[in-house]
Amino acid sequence: MTRPRATFAMSSGSLVPQFFRPDLLDELRRHVDVDPRLVLTELDSDAARRTLAATEILLAGWGAPVLTRADDAPRLRAVVYAGGVAATCLEDPRGLAARGVRAANARAANAVPVAEFALAMILLSNKAVFRAERMYRERRAFFDRATELTDTGNHRRTVGIVGASTIGRALIRLLRPFDLDVVVYSPELTPALAAELGVRAAGLDEVMAAGDVVSLHQPLTPETTGQIDARRLALMRDGATLLNTARGAVVDHEALLAELRSGRIRAVLDVTEPQPLPPGSPFFDLPNVVLTPHVAGSMGGELHRIGESVVAEVARFVAGEPFAHPERLDEA
């Protein structure tokens, strides 16, 4: 049987071996006719347009060029995206959907390391590890934990989660073995879904006020831009931690800076607005802030999980099966 023609499209050919181990490429080639050395980084040259014209499955990834002329891909039947949203590389996803083009993404695969990062930060924040490390480094001597690190630990603490997104739900699953109360705000969180997830549903203000750690996982939309504003930050408990692995712009950073300067709350920020922060940003100098340079998502060997997801989706498509992680292009 003739294998469908597949083509990689990413910002750089160097991404292919980062996502796909040799064994994954071997598995991929069992299902499709693909040359891993041929990666479309632009779609305007004659060579790129010839390649695209023969492509039935587009294996797109980070920084993929946007398909602006659907007629350049007359044989296209599927887009399998090594990332969160396949529609980001399609100018007219609805038009392609009307043609019968299907799509899948690796959002669930990329959610795993973000949820793992959030879990680690929650446990370490509640345990006051970041404060203890700083105090030990500064004093170079042990100190009295019973008097200087009070109200710490993860027993019967409350974790607030904003956004029952793919990452938010992955984090909820990871939190289950721990003796923590999990309270969640998400617009689509019905009582039935909350019961299924094993969490307590609440309004956003209640989540902000209840959490010893409040972990942000909402998408960035016009409605969520600046959603965590001065009023909501003021609702947080004294000594609570704001954890952001979502998007920097969901937080009003001027309001956050004011709260952090007061010393009343703490923050763990893997994303900021702007990103990266300018070298002179006061966030770098605050002792109650942990800053990481957007490392929560897939890195290093974790990228292979995304590659595994892509290969599995291609195998399903070629076998005539539905995608495990479909993306509705007609709703993009």
Automatic annotation (TrEMBL):
Presence of the UniProt keyword NAD in the record: yes
Pfam families from the UniProt entry: 2-Hacid_dh_C (PF02826)
GO CC list: cytosol
Keyword Transport part of the UniProt annotation: no
Stretches assigned to the D-isomer specific 2-hydroxyacid dehydrogenase NAD-binding domain: 119-296
Name of the protein described by the UniProt record: Hydroxyacid dehydrogenase
Organism: Streptomyces regalis
Matches recorded under InterPro entries: D-isomer_2-hydroxyacid_DH (IPR050223), D-isomer_DH_NAD-bd (IPR006140), NAD(P)-bd_dom_sf (IPR036291)
MF annotations from Gene Ontology: glyoxylate reductase (NADPH) activity; hydroxypyruvate reductase [NAD(P)H] activity; NAD binding
Keywords associated with the record: NAD, Oxidoreductase
